[in-house]
Amino acid sequence: MTSICVVGLGYIGLPTAAVLARAGAEVIGVDVSEERAAAVNRGELPFVEAGLGEAVAEGVARGRLRAQVQMPAAGVYIVAVPTPFKQGRTGEHEADLSYIQAAAREIAPHLTGGELVVLESTSPPGTTEHMAQLILGQRPDLSLDGSGDRPVVHFAHCPERVLPGRIMTEMITNSRIIGGLTPRAAELARDLYATFCTGELRLTDARTAELAKLTENAFRDVNIAFANELSIISEKLGIDVWELIELANLHPRVHILQPGPGVGGHCIAVDPWFIVSAAPDEARLIHAARDVNDSKPRHVVGRVREAVAGLESPTIAALGLAFKADVDDLRESPALSVTRELAALLPEARILAAEPNITELPASLAAAGNISLADYREAIAAANVVVLLVDHKEFKALDRSLLDGKRVIDTRGAWR
Ligand code: SAJ
Fold first, then answer.
1. Residue 323 is part of which domain span?
2. Which atom of ligand 1 lies nearest, measured to the CA of 268?
3. pTM of the model
4. Which of 253, 177, 164, 243 lies closest to 208 in space, CA to CA?
5. Does residue 220's CB lie within 6 angstroms of at least one atom of ligand 1?
6. Residues near 361 by Cβ (< 8 Å), separated by ≥ 6?
7. CATH number assigned to the domain comprising residue 407
C-alpha cells in the first residue's frame, strides 16, 4: 500500500491515522503543533477517546505510524483540519477555510501526479473544488482530468461521521459518503476506505457529499431544537417534558430527541451555519433551530437565578462542563457558558464546578474569581443550589439522597 499522509492530528485525523496504520498502511501524521507530533511519537494521546490510546501506541510501536510537522511526499493525503466558523462580512457565521488553504499550500509542492487528495473536514459546498483550485493554481503542470497531457491529481470529499466517545468503533462500521471531483477520484477514495471500513461506501460528487454531511448535523440540530422548544413550553404549562417526549415517542413514526442546556461541540453547533451562509434566504428552519439551541443556555441561567433568589450565601454546584456526557471536550459547550455566565451575573455566589473528565479549570472560568473546580460529591454537599448540566455516568449514578434539601435544576432529565 502506498504511504498515506494524514494532515491534522485532532479528533478525526489521529483516529483515522491509527486505524489506517492498523489496516497495514504506512502513515505519516502531520500537525502544526511540535508538541502534539512528539506526543503521538511517544504513543501518547492528546485527548480522551475510548480505544484510541491502544491503536496509536500499537501503530507507533510497529513503525507504521509517525508524526511530524513537515509535510512529506505521499501517495495519499487525507486533510482533517478544523473548519471553525468565523463572523462573516455581514455579521453572519461563515466557515473559516484558512486551515484547509494552509494544508493545500503545503501539499502542492510535493505532488508529481497520480496522488489522491481527500478532504475529510466538514466543509461548505464547493470547498473540495476550492482546495483543488488552490493546489492546481500553484501547480499548473498538473491537472484534474489529464487535459493538456498533464499528470492527474485526484480529489475527493469523504466526510467523517463518527460520534465522539465511539469513534474507534464507528470509524470502522459506519457507512461513508464518498464524493469525487471526478468519478475516478471517487473510485480511488472508495478503495482507500475499503481497507478499513466495513460499512457501505456510497459514491457521489463532492458537492453532494459536502451538503450531505452538513444535512446530517442540521437534521439533528433541528430535532434537538424541537425538544428544547418543547421543554420551555412544558415548563410554562407545568408539564414534565421528559414524560411528554417519552409518550409522544411511543408513536411508531415519532422520534424526538432530548432537551438539554443547549447544543455544543464542534459539529452540530457549527455545521448548520455553513448551510445558512450558503443559502441565507432559504435556510429559515435551520437558522431558527440554531437560534433556539443557542438561546437555551441563557434560559438555564435564568432558572438558576430564580433558584438562588432569596438565598443569603448562595453556593451553586454546577455539575459538568463538557459539551456532552462522558467526554472531556469543552468546545462550544453550553455547560461551560452557563457556568461562566452564572459567575458573571452572580458575583456574590460561590460556584463549584464539577467535571470528572478534567483536572484543571479552563482559563475562561478561572478568570472569573468565584468559580473553583471541585469533586462532585463535595460540590453537592456544600451547595444550596445544584444544577446538572451534563449527564455524565457519575452523575447519573448519584445517590439521590445527597440532593435532599437542595434546590435542584436537572437540565438533562437524568434524575427523574
Ligand atoms: N444533544 C442534546 N439532545 C440530544 C442529543 C444531543 O441536547 O438528544 C446535545 C449534546 O449534549 C451535545 C450536542 O447535542 O451538546 C451534540 O452532541 P451529539 O452527540 O448529538 O453529536 P456530536 O457533536 O458529538 O457528533 C455529531 C454526530 N452527528 C450526528 O449524529 C448526525 C456525529 O455522527 C458526527 O460525526 C459529528 O457530529 C461530526 O463530527 O460532525
1. 310-416
2. 23
3. 0.93
4. 177
5. yes
6. 353, 371, 372, 373
7. 3.40.50.720
